[in-house]
Amino acid sequence: MTLLRIVLTVSLASQLSCHNDGLPVAQAARMTTNRLLRAIALGLLLSASAMAQASRDSPLQTRARMLEPFIVDSAKRYGIDPRILWTLCFVESRFRPEAVSPKGARGLTQFMPDTAARYGLNNPHDPKTAIDAAARYLRDLLNRFGGRVDLALAAYNSGEGTVESYLTGRPLVLRTGKVINARGVMTDGIPPYEETRNYVSTILRMRNGSRTAALAFQPLSAARNRSSEKSSNARKNKFADHSSFIDLDQ
Question: Is the pTM of this model over 0.70?
Answer without folding.
Answer: no
